[in-house]
Amino acid sequence: MVVCGLACWRCRWLLPLLLGLAIIMGIIALAGRGWLESESEPYVQQASLWESCTRGDGDLNWNCESLMDYGWGRAAAATYLVGFVILVICFALAVIAFSIEILRFNFVRGIGGLLFVVAAFQIIGLVIYPVKFTEEIPLTGDNMFSWAYGFGWASTVVVIGCAFFFCCLPNWEDEVLGNIKPTYYYSSPERAPYLN
Questions:
Q1: pLDDT surpassing 60 at residue 3
Q2: How many domains does the chain fold into?
Q3: pLDDT > 90: percent of the chain
Q4: Three-state DSSP class for 65?
């Protein structure tokens, strides 16, 4: 019988790997131009976290305006970016925590707490953006919040899951480190009459 779960020594790198995945998704969200896009042709509207672009039906060039001119645009970008920076710091701390024997479980709960802060910052940015964008930017045609915005939410969901695991991981420190002896269950002949 093979049991991995948290008790597997090789599985200790799973949480830093998931944080690395959240960082990659966060980079895609920060750099992507697909926060808001036209739902169908003609594609006349697209927006990123940083700017909003429109074009006429026959025009090939995009006319862009910076969202940093709006207070809510700066707030959305700043909160998401602060969360992303803290996420990178948590990733570095997680790699250190799982690399050095002495430090492994001393600050793992602290990393979990920081990850909850990351999730709070990212959620604030991801909620401010669509609410204020649809209120203050004139939209052309049918639009949808698209793939880059989805990567922002995916990063946040992974961060929340990792935060729970980092907070709960010290409860299983002995299992992860392999310090617990296996328990064997057997029954005596008096309790197992079928063996006679």
A1: no
A2: 1
A3: 34
A4: strand
In a domain? residue 192 = no
104, pLDDT greater than 70: no
Domain enclosing residue 99, as ranges: 70-171
- Give domain status of residue 162, yes or no: yes
Sort residue 174 into left (φ over 0), alpha (ψ -120 to 50) or beta.
alpha
* Cα distance between residue 76 and residue 130, in whole Å: 10
Burial profile 81-113: b = 16 or more Cβ within 10 angstroms, e = fewer: bbbbebbbebbebbeebbeeeeebbebbeebbe
For residue 60, being part of any structural domain is answered with no
The tokens for 159 are: 């961060």
- Is pLDDT above 50 for 50? yes
Residue 63 located in a structural domain? no
Q: What is the pLDDT of residues 157-172, one digit of tens each?
A: 999 999 988 888 766 5
**Kind of pairing between the strands at 45-47 and 36-38:** antiparallel
The model's pTM: 0.79
